[in-house]
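Hi P.,

Sorry for the delay on this. The queue was packed all week, but I finally got your sequence through. Input first:
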Amino acid sequence: MTTAMLITMVLCFALTVSVAVSIGLAAILGIQVAEINMLISVKEMFNAINRFPLAAIPFFILAGNIMETGGISRRLVEFAKSIVGGVQGGLPMTCVLTCMIFASVSGSSVATTFAIGTILIPALMKHGYPNTWAASLQATSAELGVIIPPSIPLILYGVSAEVSIGELFIAGFGPGLFISGALMLFVWAYCKYKGWGKCDGDGRLSVGKATWKAGWALLMPVIILGGIYGGVFTPTEASAVAVFYALIVGLVIYREIKLPDLYTILRKSVLSAAVIMFIIANAGLFAFLITRAGVPEAIGIWLQDVLKSPVYFLLGVNAALFIIGMFIETGAAIIVLAPILAPVAMHFGIDPVHFGLIMVVNLALGMITPPFGVNLFAACTVARISLDRMIKDLVPFVLVVVVCLMVISYVPALSLTLRDLVYAR
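Then the structure:
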């Protein structure tokens, strides 16, 4: 049964069938081969999405779309540029910093790509940066949307591996800030080397003026994250608060959202959320079948026998997840693999929260690697270029994130220090 399911899924991927349909067809075939009652598919698909923390996903997607239309993202760009835009290469550094701030509310890398990319990719091109390099930078920077909390993949990992989402969110700050810093350092050095960005400070506002203009936008992550860590509301409730706050700011304060815009925003958000939920439902059925067949236990025993130490285990898992992330959507991969790999990681003495960050960062690389990197397609759409033209400029950015991943994997304090400080109280 398991072999037939895997062959079917890989074949569907090769034929460019959508991820959700590929997983669903493989699961249905597995049910037929195992002669299980088909009614079990409805039950397990419903169980996969019938989880309260998953309600945060559509709300965070909606909040991100409201921020994009309501002028919040533009003001965040002006604020970030006022801080780092005065140095050579300041505009690409602004891209990284803005994505980091925007990610602290939206939780979605694709939403971050469109919201920030529509502003900064044209600006980068206007200042003389190659369009392929600008698109590669934007796609990579938007990856922070799934690392810095609140993060949809972290929510999925917490639900799948039964790990505290609050602890995952707190632990996500260290890796997120580390990757942001590494990317900003890289683009600064690269621009110095290439001689780009000597006029990046043109049109830059003072820090005080930019902060004043972006005050309501900057208050948003403070309210959301402060409420979560202060115990005022749960991460799921925070997603609803994010939507309410973004609506108030966009409709009443900035007045850039008109009533007709709400239909477009809601339609776009519903479609995005429905795709994710459909993937989760099919992946839940797939995970149920492979668990019933004893695959997780068998893989766990095999990994323990072959990879004798935590060092080799992390190396092997990182290599496998990097390849898997290139072909399978991040959410689906987490739902299928987290219940399998998290117990094995715990056997090797790896904290499940630390392992969750490793898994999310690694699979997030799949968003910026061909052939199915969703951030790449989004950035290509904004920059109006084909994917094949980006590859050369994309490679250095991928290597920077890979180096960061190795540090995150083998220096657990980077992920766990803040978590331990908060939960030691």
